[in-house]
C-alpha cells in the first residue's frame, strides 16, 4: 500500500477504518458538506468523486484541467453542491456537473496557475479563485445555467467580480479602485 495513493477514513463512533486507494498520487482532497462524498485530486490531471457513506466507491471522474507541477485544489459548490470546480495550470477555472461529469464551463481571467477555488456557502452563485498571478477573483455565476456573466475587461478590472492584486489595490466590478 502506497501512502501517497491512500486515504484512511476513520469512523470515531464505530472505531472502524476504511481505505480509499487510488492508482496515482493524491495531491489534495475535499469533503462534501454532508460528509458523504470525497473529492480527490490526483497527479494525473484527474479528479475522482468517492461516495464514502458506507464502503468507499468511486462514483465519478472529472478531467480537462491542467496539472503538472503544482497542487491544484477543487471543491464542491453551487446549489445543493451540484457542481465541481477546480483551478488549473492553464490559468482557467473548470466547472463540471457533479452527477454527469460533463464539463459545463471554463472561466478565463487569471494570468497564472489557479491553485485554489472556493464556492461561497451562503451564495451558490458566487465562486472565488486564487492564482499565482497574485490575485483573488470573485465570480458571479448566472442562476439558471451556471454560465458566467460577461467577462469584459478594461485595465484589469473585470465586469463579473473583483480582482485583488498583490500591491493592495482593489479593483471592483463597478470600475472604482480603492486601497
UniProtKB/TrEMBL annotation:
WD repeats lie at residues 107-149. Keywords: Repeat, WD repeat. Pfam families: WD40 (PF00400). It comes from Zizania palustris. It comes from the Eukaryota. The keyword Transit peptide does not apply. This is Uncharacterized protein. The keyword Mitochondrion does not apply.
Amino acid at each position: 500500500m502506497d501512502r501517497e495513493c491512500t486515504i484512511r477514513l476513520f469512523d470515531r463512533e464505530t472505531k472502524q477504518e476504511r481505505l480509499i486507494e487510488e492508482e496515482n498520487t493524491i495531491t489534495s482532497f475535499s469533503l462534501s458538506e454532508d460528509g458523504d462524498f470525497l473529492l480527490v485530486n490526483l497527479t494525473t490531471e484527474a479528479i475522482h468523486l468517492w461516495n464514502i457513506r458506507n464502503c468507499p466507491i468511486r462514483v465519478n471522474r472529472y478531467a480537462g484541467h491542467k496539472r503538472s507541477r503544482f497542487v491544484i485544489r477543487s471543491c464542491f459548490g453551487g446549489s445543493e453542491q451540484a457542481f465541481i470546480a477546480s483551478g488549473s495550470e492553464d490559468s482557467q477555472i473548470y466547472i463540471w456537473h457533479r452527477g454527469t461529469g460533463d464539463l459545463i464551463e471554463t472561466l478565463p481571467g487569471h494570468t497564472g496557475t489557479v491553485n485554489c477555488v472556493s464556492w461561497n456557502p451562503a451564495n451558490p452563485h458566487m465562486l472565488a479563485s486564487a492564482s499565482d498571478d497574485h490575485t483573488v477573483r470573485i465570480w458571479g455565476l448566472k442562476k439558471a445555467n451556471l454560465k458566467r456573466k460577461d467577462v469584459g475587461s478594461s485595465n484589469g478590472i473585470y465586469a463579473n467580480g473583483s480582482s485583488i492584486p498583490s500591491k493592495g489595490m482593489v479593483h471592483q466590478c463597478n470600475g472604482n479602485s480603492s486601497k
